[in-house]
Design brief:
Blueprint (H helix, E strand, L loop, with lengths): L3 E6 L9 H15 L9 E3 L2 E5 L4 H8 L5 E10 L3 H19 L9 E9 L8 H15 L3 E3 L6 E7 L4 E4 L3 E2 L11 E5 L5 H11 L3 E8 L6 H15 L5 E7 L1 H10 L5 H20 L4 E2 L12 H8 L6 E2 L7 H11 L2 H4 L21 H8 L4 H10 L2 E5 L3
Parallel strand pairs: 5-6, 5-7, 10-11, 10-13, 11-12, 13-14
Antiparallel strand pairs: 1-3, 1-4, 2-3, 4-8, 4-9, 7-8, 12-15
Helix pairs in contact: 3-4, 5-10, 7-8, 8-9, 8-13
Length: 397
């Protein structure tokens, strides 16, 4: 019955003269998301995208609901720009939808519906209200089990009259919204095995950022399983925006040096400063324009204003903190919705949980931190860590 998926976007429509750049990126991202499902081409025309409908509608739906930039999509019947053709399509689509609903409906009374028409093609001889009214009358006559309710209907028949064809549907599936991944450039995501950083990555991907992940691994203090956990988290993020390179940085020697030469209360602050330095060096290598962290203000000792100021001081790139104003329950809720939470709570230690001082400094003073850090052979430590970095691509088909 249906022959296409009609895809709508929201925020992209406000982009003015460079809207085509966003549309092209969304088109390419949809094509990539549907790879392997037999979709040869994603058509783009007049503020809509169209995908030929294959037999595996459920899998197509699951994938499209992870493509940022899509506000909603519908399986549609495409018919000519003619009211009789629209009427025939509406009867066919409504009849099929009723057949699917009736076995599930045990409530007494009639099934309520309305017709919602959008006439983008102003050359069509009937107005939107006229089309809705005429189709409503046709459907009431054709299907006695229906009654009209324009305020809270149980079903809505949607008709889009566009430049070349009309499209009829009874289902609108929500998309994730946001901007297509890639339109806002590239940024380096500091990806730990915890709850927060994958959620931070997700939120920046929704703003069109393509992430390059950096994970700090301290073998033998942290296990191979802790590294695999992070790679699995990266694969989940990749399902929303395509393959993600993960730079696994050997961080052991840096942590050992900090533990040996620096005051215990400043270890976390100095460790974070070294992490940001490495992340910025990788950003320069890959052409990224920012760093992303999962910090939430006041959540732990390293996330106070003073600690953030002390860590920011070592980098020139902007550091995006999309969770800075979120509380833990908000972050957990989003982690559950995007599918990272169960992985994140698996009990495998990451480098942030080793050499942890009993009483970390929550209000570090930058001059004191810099004096303590001067005891490290920072340049050599950073160069060695980069030389031993392993790059793993997550999410490749």
């Amino acid at each position: 019955m249906y022959d296409l998926l009609l895809i709508r976007y929201g925020e992209i429509g406000t982009k003015g003269k460079n809207r085509h750049v966003f549309e092209q990126r969304l088109q390419a991202n949809i094509q990539a998301a549907l790879a392997g499902l037999g979709v040869q081409e994603v058509e783009r025309a007049h503020a809509r995208l169209y995908v030929p409908l294959k037999e595996n509608l459920e899998e197509m739906t699951n994938r499209l609901q992870r493509v940022f930039g899509i506000s909603s999509f519908s399986p549609v019947r495409r018919v000519p720009l003619d009211f009789e053709a629209i009427k025939e399509g509406a009867i066919e689509v409504m009849g099929s939808s009723l057949w699917e609903k009736e076995p599930l409906s045990d409530s007494p009374g009639k099934l309520t519906f309305k017709v919602d028409t959008r006439r983008a093609n102003k050359g069509f001889p009937m107005t939107s209200p006229e089309v809705s009214r005429e189709l409503g009358a046709v459907l009431l006559k054709e299907f006695p089990q229906l009654s009209v309710d324009v305020h809270e209907p149980q079903m809505t028949l949607e008709v889009e009259i566009r430049e070349q064809y009309s499209y009829v549907s009874t289902e609108r599936i929500p998309g994730p919204g946001g901007l297509p991944v890639g339109v806002s450039g590239k940024a380096v995501l500091l990806l730990s095995g915890g709850i927060d950083s994958p959620v931070a990555g997700y939120r920046m991907m929704k703003r069109g950022v393509a992430p390059v992940a950096v994970h700090f691994h301290s073998s033998p203090f942290t296990s191979e399983r802790s590294k695999e956990k992070v790679l699995d988290l990266a694969r989940i993020l990749a399902s929303y925006g395509g393959p993600i390179p993960v730079h696994v940085v050997h961080f052991t020697e840096i942590q050992k040096a900090i533990n040996q030469h620096c005051p215990g209360k400043l270890m976390i602050t100095i460790m974070r400063r070294m992490m940001l330095r490495i992340a910025e060096m990788i950003a320069e290598q890959v052409g990224a324009g920012a760093l992303i962290t999962g910090e939430s203000l006041g959540q732990v000792a390293s996330q106070t204003m003073e600690s953030i100021q002390a860590t920011n001081a070592v980098v020139e790139l902007p550091v995006f903190r999309p969770l800075i104003g979120a509380d833990k329950m908000e972050i957990i809720d989003l982690a559950q919705r995007i599918g990272t939470y169960k992985l994140s709570i698996q009990p495998y230690e990451d480098c942030c949980t080793i050499f942890v001082p009993r009483h970390p400094e929550t209000h570090p003073k930058l001059p004191e931190v810099e004096r303590a850090e001067a005891k490290l052979a920072a340049k050599e430590l950073l160069e060695e860590a980069l030389e031993r970095t392993q790059v793993i691509i997550c999410g490749e088909n």
